[in-house]
Each structure stands twice: as structure tokens, then as C-alpha cells.
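hey so i finally got around to running the thing on that chain from the lab meeting. sorry it took forever, my laptop kept dying and i had to restart like 3 times. anyway pasting the input first so we r on the same page abt which one it is
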Amino acid sequence: MINQYSLGEFVGNCIYVAYTKLRFPGARLIRLPFYLRGGKKRFSYGHDLTLGYGCRFDLGGEGIVLKIGSNCKFNDRVHIVAHDSVSIGDNVLMASNIFISDTSHGEFTSTSACPDVAPDDRELATKPTVIGDNVWIGEGVCVMPGVTIGDGCTVGANTVVTKSFPSNTVLAGSPARAIRKWNDVSQSWERV
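ok and heres what got predicted. didnt touch it at all, straight out
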């Protein structure tokens, strides 16, 4: 097999592997820079976690608020905000420039998000966000608070997911809508 990395990338990856083994036992590769606000005690991960360059996890709340399953691969600049609960299943593949959150600056069904109050001063509203097993999330996706994405889903590039979707669905658009669903009987994807 031909080495796919330049000499500089190869040396950098050797450094990242050493960093990973020391700081994140069981993970496969954590590339730097990696921003972890809130500390390691607020997130858990399964074996073989891979993070690309510039990933950022903003964690608040109490206890473990971000749970990542085994064999997950996140590309560059995946930003996750978790103050209540963000749960990501096993074998999840994410492209770059993705935002996932369980938190909003204000609840827009009450007065706590009054436009006269600066967004930074509003009370945080949280709703658990869940991404199932074997999910593929494309470039530039935004997953909003309170969303559940079922097992086996594919989320198309630049999709904004504002509501939950069942397993084995292909999502696209802003806001997201189902465009295909897996048919177990015919063993094929069908248009919705």
C-alpha cells in the first residue's frame, strides 16, 4: 500500500497517536488542535474514536453529558455543545463543519427568550439529542436540540435537522425532510 500522507503529515500523525494514547486511552487518533471545554469527566467514548483537526466539544452541566460510542470517526471542525445529554451511537461517520447541540439560548415558547435580553444573558434551554448507530452525517450539517436521528440514517450535506427521524431514513434539506426510506422486504431504498 502506498503511504497517503506527506512526510510532514506522517510525522504529525505519529505525534497525535502518542498524544492520543497518553490522554485518551482506547481512542484511535485525536488530531490537534482539539478543544475540550468542561473537561474529560463530562464525556465518555468507546474504543477507536477518531477526531479530525479543530474539533470542539463545549460541555457543561453535571456528570457525563456527551456519550460517544465505539468506532466513531469525526472529520475536521465537528462542534458539539452538550449541557444536558448528547448521545452518539456506534459506527457513526461525520464529515467536516458539523454542529450538534442540546442547548439553546432561551426557550422561544416563553418570555425567557425576550428579544430585549441579550442572547448571552438568557437562561439556557436544553433537550437531549440522540444520534443512533451506523449513522452517516454529511458536510455542513446542523443538528438542533431535542432531535433523535435513528439507527442507519444518512444525513445529506448542509441539512438542518430540527425534528426527529426514524431509523433507516435518508434526510436532506433545510429544514430536514425524509427523501428515502429503507424497505426491509425489497431490501432497497425507496423514495418517500
